[in-house]
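TL;DR need structure tokens for one chain.
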Amino acid sequence: MKTYPYLIVCEHCDTVYQRFAVASGEVARCKRCSAVLYRGSLLDINRWLALTVAAAIAFVITNVCPIIRISFHGLHNEATLWDAAAALVHSSASPLAAIAAFSIIVAPMLQIALLGWVLGFARVGRRAPGFSQVMRLLINLRPWCMIEVCMLGILVAVIKLSSFVQVLPGAGIWGMAVLMALLALIANRDMRWLWDLTAQPHGNEVIG
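>> reply
TL;DR here they are.
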């Protein structure tokens, strides 16, 4: 299947343009309908890769360290993200266990790993093996990553439990907060910019 990485199609009116470089903060708009085609970003390749590495570290902390610690009459218990997913298996919501585990563990892990893969090669001006397939997968994974939903659910649970038992935040919940912020920065970036980082454009003019 032949691809045209230097062409972009307006999502609203299907007008085809040739991509051109935009400075940080600038916006490329469709001439026909004025819809936003893509935006310039403050993130260069080195910053993007550094934030991806930081997200990987936050992901490890989130999954290894306890999210919360519950104390009741001298008894203590700690729970990690894996414990939360495992608990769903033994509850009435067991059919949701696989979806929950994918959304809060597998999808973020894949996003970070695949983005690190393509950015590592892009940093030296090369396209990673399987570049096109990885780019499509990164875009398709976006709706499945629900760290922020998990974070909100944990906060609601902590508030409710605090009326009955002593609930202390663990290192994992701080790691999750950092991971949520970093994923918003690295995963929601315009992925099409990576095409420009790894190959020379065919021209600078916009065509419509």
